């Protein structure tokens, strides 16, 4: 992921900053408890494609 892109991306729902989890290839929104997938170096910022975080992940 491009570092400049990571600086400007925010959660499409609440506009909070996202945490990049390289190993999982995800961008995580802690307030919404959602993880957006990164596929082929492209973040998929769709609510329908996001994964709900478990209690131990948030």
UniProtKB/TrEMBL annotation:
Classification via InterPro entries: Trm112-like
Gene Ontology terms, MF aspect: kinase activity
Pfam family, one: Trm112p
Keywords: Kinase, Transferase
Gene3D superfamilies xref list: 2.20.25.10
Origin: domain of life: Bacteria
Annotated Gene Ontology cellular component terms: cytosol
Family: Belongs to the UPF0434 family.
Protein name from the UniProt record: UPF0434 protein BJN45_15275
């Amino acid at each position: 992921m491009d570092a400049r892109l990571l600086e400007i991306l925010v959660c499409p729902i609440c506009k909070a900053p996202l945490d990049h989890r390289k190993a999982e290839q995800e961008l995580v929104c802690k307030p919404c408890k959602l993880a957006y997938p990164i596929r082929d170096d492209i973040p998929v910022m769709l609510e329908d494609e996001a994964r709900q975080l478990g209690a131990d992940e948030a």
